[in-house]
Amino acid sequence: MLKYYIYIMSSSTGTLYTGMTNDLERRVYEHKHKLKPGFTKRYNVTRLAYFEETNDVGIAIAREKEIKGWRRSKKVALIKTLNPTWQDLAADWFDSE
């Protein structure tokens, strides 16, 4: 059964990006290595700050849209529930980092 992940990435300066994927490790790797052009590459958004998972793609898409619609303060509060020190949750996922 496929799993879907809703995640929030951050930059060292506090820029946030919310996304959804069915392969969190691959997607975080792409962000960290700036493999795709766009917002996260432009603003150096490379730290995994928060994620949650579901088996339902519809729920994942709805949750991503919900979080994207929130104010920054609400996103920060969500991150702090899982990751109060804002550590990179994927810091040790890849050998080269």
In short:
The protein has 97 residues and is an alpha+beta fold. It has four helices and three strands, in the order E-E-H-H-E-H-H.
Verbal overview:
The chain has 97 residues and is α+β, with helices and mostly antiparallel strands. The protein has a single domain (4-82), classed as GIY-YIG endonuclease, CATH 3.40.1440. It is built from 4 helices and 3 strands. The protein has helices spanning 24-32, 39-42, 57-68, 72-82; strands spanning 4-10, 16-21, 47-54. It has a 3-stranded antiparallel β-sheet, with helices on both faces. β1 and β2 (16-21) form a beta hairpin. It is globular. It starts with a strand and ends in a 15-residue tail after the last helix.
Q: What labels would you give this structure?
A:
alpha+beta; GIY-YIG endonuclease; 3-stranded antiparallel β-sheet; 4 helices; 3 strands
Secondary structure elements and pairings:
Layout: E1 4-10, E2 16-21, H1 24-32, H2 39-42, E3 47-54, H3 57-68, H4 72-82
Antiparallel strand pairs: 1-2, 1-3
- Which segments are poorly predicted (pLDDT under 50) over 5 or more consecutive residues? none
End-to-end Cα distance, whole Å, is: 30 Å
CATH uppermost class: Alpha Beta
Q: What's the CATH superfamily, by name?
A: GIY-YIG endonuclease
CATH architecture: 3-Layer(aba) Sandwich
